[in-house]
Specification:
alpha/beta, TIM Barrel, four-stranded antiparallel beta sheet, 3 domains
């Protein structure tokens, strides 16, 4: 049977968010609904599929990648991460189907037949966290990864949320370095440690700060996760800056990094983001990587549709590894047609017509039109870091001239009112 690639089809789609994610993702990640479904047809008639999250940091499929794929042996190409996420997944799926084996058999010996999965959401008011975790628990999840951000009172958020959670349910707080330095981390983290459901902190401070990271780790009972590669892996292992890693990227990179982490006896979680198409590919990777012991973060829970049949189901925090050939699932063709776009639109960021207010405990308010503005202000040290009582809200357009004027000014530059120093 010929494994030569006969054709590559790329289909843009817009997969909608569920209600709670939708009202929070709009301020930072409105473009995460845009995907490109990739179908690879082999000369033998086998069709494989995959997906790329458009405008994501890794994985875009280029015209050049398609050109160098057509006419070539799929098995010789499938380990090439530079092809992009959707095309690489589709090649693995096609090769697995052609050889009548599941994708994990192409990766290595199976270590587990069920993989750990985490529910994911962006930062949001505590009340929305409660709604999302309630949904996660009802669907069999035992872990929740979210964003810890200085424009929300994290201690209050954790208190409100943890009062609703069973003891077995774990929380992973990803700071994306927003604690800035070891001093801020040493002040806040011991307080958050008091919430027993909190089990993991991800990247509390900039990862290249090796000495600061060692101090942070010594100040908390909670495990610290850092993205693999920063600082360089040998430095991270020698200085013992974290308890484990976040690993993502293409198949070659994931397998290489996961193998090194295993040799160092460091656990990690896989982070490959998309609909359940990507989640399924990540499950195959998790099946063969011994130290993929922390729940995988794939974000398919954000969407109204998983885009596959059968859908991923979770029990006791685990999802079964498919045993059918290829990815072991079918593309949901009805959903594909429902969400198909005539062409991929430009990145819809910032979303128009937003007015975001950071309410400070002092009584002052800072107004912005999108997340990147206040992210930059916090990262540059122009705003207080995690003060008690702070919160963010989306100020609805009431049709007034005052709202229009304030939103227009905030689009140009942050607006600080109520005694905030200029």
């Amino acid at each position: 049977m010929s494994l030569e690639v006969k054709q590559v089809e790329r289909i843009p789609v817009n997969v909608p968010y569920r209600e709670v994610p939708a009202r929070n993702m709009v301020r930072e990640l409105p473009h995460w609904t845009l995907f490109e479904i990739c179908k690879v047809t082999l000369k033998n008639g086998v069709v494989g599929f995959g997906e790329t999250m458009q405008y994501y940091t890794w994985g875009t499929v280029s015209d050049a990648a398609v050109e160098r794929t057509v006419g070539k042996n799929a098995a010789e190409l499938m380990w090439d991460d530079s092809l992009g996420a959707g095309l690489q997944m589709a090649l693995f799926d096609a090769v697995g189907k052609a050889n009548e084996v599941p994708v994990y058999r192409l990766l290595g010996p199976r270590h587990r037949d069920r993989c750990f999965l985490s529910w994911w959401d962006i930062d949001m008011p505590a009340e929305d966290w409660v709604l999302e975790c309630r949904q996660a628990i009802s669907e069999g999840y035992t872990a929740f990864k979210t964003k810890a951000r200085p424009w929300f009172d994290l201690d209050r958020q954790c208190r409100v949320l943890c009062e609703t959670l069973p003891d077995y349910f774990n929380l992973d707080m990803d700071f994306n370095a927003m604690l800035i330095d070891a001093g801020n981390a040493s002040r806040l983290l011991p307080r958050i440690d008091e919430h027993p459901n909190v089990k993991l902190y991800e990247s509390p401070i900039p990862q290249e700060d090796v000495e600061g990271s060692k101090i942070v780790r010594s100040k908390t009972r909670v495990s610290i996760a850092m993205h693999y590669g920063s600082p360089p892996i040998m430095t991270a292992l020698k200085e013992d800056v974290c308890d484990g890693f976040v690993i993502g990227g293409g198949a070659t990179r994931v397998m290489r990094d996961g193998t090194v982490a295993a040799m160092a006896n460091k656990p990690f979680f896989l982070q490959l983001v998309g609909t359940a198409i990507t989640s399924t590919f990540a499950i195959h990777l998790g099946a063969v990587l011994s130290h993929a012991r922390w729940p995988s973060v794939n974000c398919h829970q954000l969407y109204t549709h998983q885009m596959i049949k059968p859908a991923i189901t979770v029990s006791n925090g685990l999802a079964g590894v498919p045993e059918c050939p290829g990815l072991g699932v079918e593309l949901d063709e009805d959903a594909l047609e429902q969400f198909r776009l005539p062409e991929m639109p430009d990145k819809p960021y910032p979303a128009p017509g937003l007015l975001l207010a950071i309410r400070w405990p002092s009584g002052s308010t800072s107004y912005y039109a999108h997340t990147q503005q206040y992210w930059d202000d916090f990262a540059a040290g122009r705003l207080p870091i995690f003060p008690a009582g702070v919160y963010l809200e989306n100020v609805a357009d009431d049709g007034s001239e005052e709202w229009k004027d304030l939103q227009s000014r905030a689009t140009q530059t942050p607006v600080h009112e109520g005694g905030r120093p200029k």
